[in-house]
Amino acid sequence: MLSMLLAACGGNGEEEEDTDASKDEGTEETSDGPELGQEDLTQPYVAWARETISTHMLGALLEKVGYNVELTQVEAGPMWSSVADGSADFHTSAWLPATHASYWEEYEDDIVQVKQVLDEAPLALSVPSYMEDVNSIEDLKDNEELGESVNWEVVGIDPGAGIMENTEEAFDVYGLDNWELTTSSEAAMLAELEAAVENEEPIIVPLWKPHWIFGTMDLKMLEDPEEIYGGAGDQIYTVARDGLEEDAPRAYKVMEQYDETYEMIDEMMPKVHAEDEDPAEVVQEFIDNNPDLVDEWLDGIPTE
């Protein structure tokens, strides 16, 4: 009887150990991935061509994995400063090393580069291709005929944009003393560009790629021998406030896995900017039509 009792007790102990081990294994297998953490996120952006698409895309992906994301349209300065001071959480519009160099220099101690999402983003002063005698920024210097034809103006976008700072620097470096950079918005600049092209008139504007306008007009970027606009081009990064990785691990993981191609951005930009479709709807359509790509972006991350 004693032997039977010991055998019975030994059997129960083994079963309990096996059960506990099974529970541990089950916990690992059903892990929910990175924790949600802070549920409410704020994403500031400037309504530039690519940025409108990218911001809505990343916002939609984060909502898919459980976050509430507020998209806030601002100018470039507040976009950077709000992430640096923690009143916003991240943005996907850091053009480095050239275009946003001044912002990065000011805020790099408080902002983290999470992921390079696009590896080539050239910027330059640009003109319609029918302006055959203008191929370099150097061609603007002391060009009386051209200057008078455009009232010595380069038609710019919103003040504070990195490309505007580049252009002001280009005026100094290339000795364009007679020229003036006007400020407006991207939409206003494009309206002037479209009107000029329709009448085949001269115009000079700052532009960048990716941008939907290159798919609708025959334009050329002017050569920049001094590489004021960054030479071969910037790279575009998603950046976040210091501490977001700890506060919202799941969101940070999504940002680390999200990237872009020219093809996907070029597919969506005309729908939003040329056809005036709702960017949220355009992005959702892309998500619905590209499940494999979305699975790559959200690999190992539970969706709500």
TrEMBL record:
Residues 8-40 are annotated as: Disordered. Its main location: membrane. Pfam families: OpuAC. Residues 45-288 form the ABC-type glycine betaine transport system substrate-binding domain. SUPFAM superfamilies: Periplasmic binding protein-like II (SSF53850). InterPro entries: ABC_Gly_betaine_transp_sub-bd. The keyword Membrane applies. It is found in: Cell membrane. The keyword Membrane applies. Coiled coil: none annotated. Keywords: Cell membrane, Membrane, Transport. This is Glycine betaine ABC transporter substrate-binding protein. It comes from Lentibacillus salinarum.
